[in-house]
Every structure is written in C-alpha cells, then in structure tokens.
Amino acid sequence: MIARMFATALMALAATTAAQAQDYPTRTVTVIVPFAAGGPADVTGRIVADIFSRHLGQSFVVENVGGAGGTVGTLRAAKATPDGYTIISGHMGTNGLAGFFYPNLGYDAEKDFEPVGLIAEYPEVLTVRKEIPANNLKEFVAYAKANESKLNMGHAGVGSVSYIGCLLLNTAIGIKPTMVPFTGTAPVMNAILAGTVDYDCDPVLGPLPHVRAGTVKALAVASKKRSPMLPDVPTSYEQGLPEFDCAPFYAVFAPKGTPKAVIDKLAAALDKGLSEPAVQKRFADLGADIAEPNQRGPKALGELVHSTIGRLGPILKAAAAK
What we know:
single chain; alpha/beta; D-Maltodextrin-Binding Protein, domain 2; 2 domains; 6-stranded mixed sheet; 3-stranded antiparallel sheet
C-alpha cells in the first residue's frame, strides 16, 4: 500500500514537472555571464538573452558574476535549481577547460551541466600596448624573449579564454611573463591603455575599437584565416607560429537535471535567433564565426565540449605545470 502511494506520488510529481516544463518560462530567467560587463562574454550573453526574450516571451536578464577566471559564476550556475530559470552563457574556459587549472573547482564541466547550444566562436588576437616596439609577431617574439622579466600579461583570470590563449602563445615562444589577473578583459584593455599591462590575447571583439582607433596594436590573429574585422592583421599561421591557435567557443548551458522539455525550448529559440539575418550581422560585426546549423543544439555542443577537453586539456595541463 505504501509503495503504491509512493509510486502514485512520484507519477504526480513527474506529471507536474512535465506540465511546468511545457509552460516554461512563466517568469524572469537569469542568464549568468561569469565575467565583468563590457567584454566578449558579456556582449555575447546579452545578445543571447535578447534572443531568448523575443522568442520565449519572458524577460531573460543578464547577471554578471565575475571572479576566478569565470568559475565563480559558473559554480553558481551549476548549483542553481535545475528548472530553467538560471542558465549560463559560458565558454571554452568556464565550461570546458577550467578543471585543468582549478583542482578544487566545485563542478565538472561535462557532468554538472546540460548543453543547450553553441552560439559562436571568436578567434583571438594578440594585442599589445602601442609603445611596444613590435609591429608583427616575429618582432614581438624577439622583444618578449629579450624583456621577459619585465613583461606583464593581462588576463581575465586563470582558466579564462584570455589566459588559455596567451598560455598557448607563451609556451610556443618559451617565455614566462608576469601574468596579471582581472575580472574580465575589458579591465585588461583599460590597463593596456594605461600602460600597466603590455599585452593580452582576447577575442577580436574586445580590442577591435581600440585597434581601429590606433591606441593599441594587433599583431596576430590566432587562427588559420584572417579576421574580416582586422583584414590587415596576419594570422599566427602566416607568421610561422601555428601553435598560437585559439578560437574559443561561446555557448549556453543549464544546470544538470534541467527538464529536457526546457532544454529543447531553449535550444529551439537559440537556433531561431541565430538564423536571423540581423543577429548574424551583429555577430559578424563583432568578429565572430556564428554557429552553423549543423553545429547547433545540445548534442553537438556536448560533443564539442568533450572534444575540446580531449584536444587542449593535455597541452594546457603540461604548460601550467611548467
């Protein structure tokens, strides 16, 4: 009798949960962006929040929760109630490679999140303060090796994409500069402009207006193809340093256990938004490679996270150990 009552209660709970998922969303949804306002992660998260708001008929509000390379905000998202009302706009570092840098991370990138969908990839660019006497990657390598002890490299925290990109660069060059952490790459750029930081590695979006204004110098795009936003900046491959290859993915995730019906609604809304010409133009104007239709959805994102961890994890672990 008790077992029958328990089973009935479980069935009723499941039915209620399913009904709530079908009605989702009925109130405001929080989109955690685990970095400070103004950088690529923040801009991307706000575009995505707008997509969800328009296609799902409720407010999706960005909350910036910076710290520890984005892992503070990501941990908060992992521990949130898995009902779809807290999601995260994360990236390759926070929802992929952070575990290689933080042994006591508090979450597992693959086990503690439900993938929703890939948004875009942003090729990184090496940006230096304008006073650095280098105008290409070869000259920067020579300068960096000669001035290693005096170099300050800015990043958005250990495990962030700016940290990962420059770690690949530093390892390829063979230097160990002073690595200065910030809460996001927007503050890093402010420090470069102020002359207290020498260089950083950030998706094109971040330094783009400053490069165009001539207040900083872009020396290399970390990709096989040039950025249409910086067509005059040669790639790392063109300049003989293919090891500096970093185009981080940005994507949406939900806490593990979020109902499949909710994940499906979010994924469908994101897919619709990314297919809109206005959204595609907006991302193109930011220097992003928007996710192609066959790259979208939970399954494709889950596979991307897994393959990224397998490809870059051992390299970064060895580099960090050195």
